[in-house]
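Continuing the batch. This is chain 6 of the set; chains 1 through 5 are on the previous pages. Same settings as before, nothing changed between runs. Recording input and output for traceability.
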Amino acid sequence: MTTEPTLSASPSASTGARRTKRWIDDWRPEDAEFWNTSGQVIARRNLAWSVFAEFLGFVVWQLWSIVVVMLPGAGFDLTTTQTFWLISLPSLVGATLRFPYTFMVARFGGRNWTIVSASLLLIPTVLLAIVVSDPQTPFGVLLLVAGLAGLGGGNFASSMANITYFFPHREKGWALGLNAAGGNIGTAIAQLLVPIAVSLTAATTLGLSVAGWMWVPLIVIAAWGAWRHMDNLSTARADVAGSLAALREPHLWLLALLYIGTFGSFIGFSSVFPKLIADQFPDYSTFQVGQAALSLAFLGALVGSLARPYGGRLADRFGGARVTAGALAVMSLGALSLIAVLPTGGFWGFLACFLVLFAATGVGNGSTYRMIPSVFAARGRARGDDEQAQAANTRAAAAALGLISAIGAYGGFVIPQLLGASKSLTGGYTAAFWGFVAAYIALLAMTVVVYLVPRRALAGQRV
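Output for chain 6:
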């Protein structure tokens, strides 16, 4: 039996796709001998560079969440509505881009598309550096450049779709969770390092523009690393027909709702957290550590990011539905606690409640994402799919990963907009949090009824 992956350098008659030395034709992760001999090493190498590229995607996607808080100090005069639009528009654009990005791995190859998508991140970073250097920049231009930051949000869908092909079913939860967490943590790193970099270069001509320039070298390294060390898989063929089949699956839409509640909450709260702290507790917005300014807002995204792979791992062990239900219950309690804490004006209680909420969103979006291939596999067993139908179902599940990640990311737009509307209409954020509590309880009930109670439509299994 051949255990080494086959690298093809000639055109494939079966697919008509062009082959180079970076295409792998023979990929059998479910074959234990193949996996232990060579597959695992290749998969982990691709995962490492995928994590780095996706990390930078999240950095760029969420740059405006921290830059917006610093604009008044740089001489910009923005209304509350304008501020929340600059925060939320990258999420809207990024969520929308996830739909086409889902198909790019199958169309161009995971390695090839990682090179392109990483290189595209240079556009919003360079433009951000230019526009924030002049306080007279029109709001429309700021909004356009903020929207371009959504290019970073699209990377998640293609990266996750790519990595799911590399790993066997038994390790998908951990691999996808690690890939996602490595990306998610980019939000925290951006919110941590940008205030430090800006404060340390305040005496230079860079000013706030360093928030964009500082990431350019890393983006170049990511594109080079993908070119040098990643691979394309010929078996990664998520065609349009498979995606249409996924869209016709009712469970895709239920899982998308869960992902809006979990990942949408994570990215939405991450993007708005610096603004909430600045509004509610201005004295705690930044702390001076020597010459550097430190914002504690990065802790929320950090906690949520680190929790995500454990959501996937717990789902591997206990089942995704159980872990997701538990996460939603904690999210409900976290939001209720914030409602109680906000009127007291206590920053440390506010921070503690939010960190609990962030941890639960991280676990929940990891476990929800792990549910996707499990639900599609259970649906196939319930239908009694033959080998050909199982292959088509696997491709549909891979497409569903990208589609659901796209739909769920719209939560990153909705949450800041709801918080902004609550602030404008009521003068505070409590009304919005009551809405979040109601949404989490409804999603918890749906998870229990549909996925914890054994059903024939899911082959009598708890997901």
